[in-house]
Specification:
Blueprint (H helix, E strand, L loop, with lengths): L26 H6 L5 H11 L5 E2 L8 H4 L10 H5 L2 H4 L7 E8 L5 H9 L3 E6 L4 E7 L3 H6 L3 E6 L2 E4 L10 H8 L7 E6 L19 E6 L12 H10 L22 E6 L6 E3 H18 L1 E6 L1 E2 L10 H11 L3 E5 L36 E7 L9 E2 L18 E4 L3 E4 L5 H10 E3 L11 E8 L2 H18 L5 H11 L12 H4 L6 H6 L12 E4 L5 E4 L2 H4 L12 H5 L70 E2 L4 H5 L3
Parallel strand pairs: 1-21, 7-9, 7-11, 8-9, 11-13, 13-14, 14-16
Antiparallel strand pairs: 2-4, 2-5, 3-4, 6-10, 6-12, 10-22, 14-15, 17-19, 18-19, 20-21
Helix pairs in contact: 9-13, 10-11
């Protein structure tokens, strides 16, 4: 995903985190809104900035009263209980709102008639998540929420794409040279802006036929061709074979990670890299319906949108979970919202501009999926690589899921170009690749075959390609085992000063040979854990033994948190917490806790009129969700911002 330079929704990365880095978090504002105590956010912020330490806690970690201290409990109406914050803010507005209506059971004809009676125009059915996308008059939102069969209302938000990697920095060259692994026989679905399928780098080297074996478009009135350039660039990172840079006239060849993998092109973004959640879910439904026909084992999703609600009710997260549980490894971009403020000089580092924790985009905030952050090379030596400052940081907002899960190269990546597409036309001056960069020529012309992009959009397909190699080696692997092996085998990473930060680096830096050598087996869901801070300011990872097992993390062979996050994470060796800790029935995530019925979402609480999401507050008029804001009216986007697109040195 790429980083923002202006406030247009088409080319911007949201500052999703209501927390500051070097400037200090908005702890007072959150506390005043009734979310948690100011002291809690100050402690959490200090830890994430490295002032304190990450650690493992005893069985019962923290009482609910600590995290919820000071939270205002208020009576909420049906809209407040059932709707995400963006919809609740529009209830008193004018015009029509695009909403995803999740229902109990199925949307029967009788129920759809009730929706129509409220002026709802049903424009897409989404049976995968028991929902429908509708346009509803804003004045009828409360009545819509009050219908007994309506379970949840979510904004049909706009998604953005999330944009130097070298094969050598991941070990993919070793997988090819020493193991002969190329991803052959494995299909990766690319849910993006389309793929330019006639590119020679995506052809079968023996037959010349395209390895894009199927295509479909969910952009009304348009085919699956890539008019943006984002999806083709992603596809090249996954499966490019370097045909356009192979031969005696070239001294450098641009290979993808899994150079013989097949691809399925599912276009859900327009030429500027935007779409809506309902469009993406429709694409997901097609993938699930055709996964066996095309042997789709991996889904690459280099897009995202601002989290509007808990992942447990977010339609996009729930759709991704459905794909995961159907046997597809889902790989998502973390987002490019890691800078609290945009840099004044795109292409350079952003010291002094602040680090935005709690900035993971949806659906990367879902604990099932593999969420990928972006690394950058410093001097060509892998051990010197570090995080790209625009890469979104965890934990996830509201749910406190520890993300990203892993990091991979994503800065200034050279991959496939689409001539005259939106990205090439817009960023040719800064992102073109000179022919002289890889061929023996004196020409000053730029390549028409390759282009440079940066962002977590580019790091994500690196991991998707790695997954294709793993599945070629062992087709029996489940998504949970794939995730566990990637995380436990990742090289444990820290900042140059030795400070670890799992909310930045996750389980570590992708190491493909180590992942291929791993033999661990996940016998339980490999869900990313939650984190919290204790009274002393130590951040703690939290797992429920009912989910993770009595003595193992994710199952056989994974019994030590240090094996996943490394010794420097200082999380100790005892991995299990009691049932009544954070995940417990009466603890943080209980019925009346953060996402509970009468707590954070209650009237006059965190989403109240003049609170965090209130008028003129963080999400107020002309702010992130305002009229002239970053995300525009209804955005799911490919996150094309200038700073990330240009990359950083």
């Amino acid at each position: 995903m790429e980083t923002r330079t202006n406030k247009s929704s088409k080319c911007s990365t949201p500052s999703t985190a209501p927390f500051r880095g070097s400037e200090g978090y908005r702890a007072a504002e959150l506390a005043a809104a009734g979310h948690c105590s100011e002291a809690f956010y100050s402690r959490m912020g200090a830890v994430l900035r490295g002032a304190l330490t990450w650690r493992l806690a005893p069985a019962v970690i923290l009482a609910a009263s600590l995290l919820l201290g000071g939270a205002r409990i208020a009576r909420a109406d049906a809209l407040t209980n059932k709707a995400d914050r963006a919809i609740a803010a529009q209830a008193n507005g004018h015009g029509r709102v695009s909403v995803i209506v999740t229902v109990e059971g199925n949307l029967t004809a009788a129920r759809e008639h009730q929706l129509q009676a409220l002026g709802c125009d049903v424009y897409r059915h989404l049976p995968l998540v028991h929902a429908a996308a509708v346009q509803v008059p804003a004045k009828n939102l409360r009545t819509l929420a009050s219908l007994s069969f309506v379970r949840h209302l979510a904004l049909d938000a706009t998604l953005k794409k999330c944009d130097e990697f070298t094969v050598e920095h991941t070990g993919a060259d070793i997988a090819f040279k020493e193991m002969g692994l190329t991803g052959k026989g494995v299909t990766v679905a690319v849910l993006d802006s389309g793929i330019h399928a006639s590119n020679d780098d995506l052809a079968d080297a023996n037959t010349g036929r395209s390895r894009v074996i199927a295509k479909t478009s969910f952009i009304t009135g348009e085919n699956a061709n890539d008019r943006c350039g984002h999806g083709t660039h992603v596809a090249g990172i996954i499966a490019g074979n370097g045909a356009n840079s192979t031969g005696p006239q070239f001294f450098r060849t641009f290979y993808g990670i899994a150079r013989e993998a097949n691809l399925v092109n599912v276009r859900v973004l327009d030429e500027k890299g935007q779409s809506q959640v309902s469009t993406v879910i429709a694409g997901l439904q097609w993938i699930l319906a055709n996964k066996d026909r095309y042997n789709i084992r991996v889904l690459n999703f280099s897009l995202g949108h601002l989290p509007l609600e808990s992942y447990t009710v977010d339609p996009l997260c729930q759709a991704m979970e459905a794909a995961w549980k159907a046997g597809i490894v889902v790989v998502c971009a973390a987002g490019n919202a890691g800078r609290y403020n945009d840099t004044a000089t795109p292409g350079l580092s952003n010291e002094g501009y602040g680090t935005a924790y709690f900035s993971i985009l949806s659906p990367g905030n879902d604990p099932y999926v593999i969420t990928v952050g972006a690394m950058k090379t410093v001097d060509g030596v892998r051990s010197h690589d570090t995080i790209a400052t625009y890469s979104s940081r965890g934990p996830s907002f509201g749910d406190f899921i520890l993300k990203p899960d892993i990091v991979a190269p994503g800065n200034r990546v050279i991959s496939l170009a689409v001539h005259n597409a939106y990205l090439e036309q817009t960023y040719a001056a800064t992102n073109s690749v000179p022919l002289s960069a890889y061929s023996y020529t004196k020409s000053a012309k730029d390549s028409k075959a390759y282009f440079t992009l940066s962002g977590t959009s580019m790091a994500t397909p690196v991991v998707s390609g790695a997954v294709a190699l793993m599945l070629q080696k062992d087709p029996t692997l489940t998504p949970d085992t794939v995730k566990a092996r990637l995380m436990i085998s990742a090289d444990k990473w820290a900042f140059p000063n030795g400070q670890p930060d799992p909310a930045t680096f996750g389980a570590g830096y992708l190491n493909i040979p180590a992942a291929l050598a791993s033999t661990v087996v996940a016998t339980q869901p490999a869900r990313s854990p939650k984190v919290t801070a204790d009274a002393q300011g130590n951040v703690t990872i939290v797992m429920d033994n009912a989910i993770w097992g009595e003595r193992a993390i994710w199952g056989t062979g994974i019994t030590n948190l240090n094996a996943i996050w490394g010794e420097r994470a200082i999380w100790g060796t005892n991995a299990i917490w009691g049932v009544n800790a954070i995940w417990g029935e009466n603890a943080i995530w209980g019925e009346n806790a953060i996402w509970g019925e009468n707590a954070i979402w209650g009237e006059n609480a965190i989403w109240g009129e003049n609170a965090i999401w209130g008028e003129n507050a963080i999400w107020g008029e002309n702010a992130i969700w305002g009229e002239n804001a970053i995300w525009g009216e209804n955005a799911v986007v490919a996150d094309l911002c200038q700073t990330a697109i240009a990359g950083e040195k």
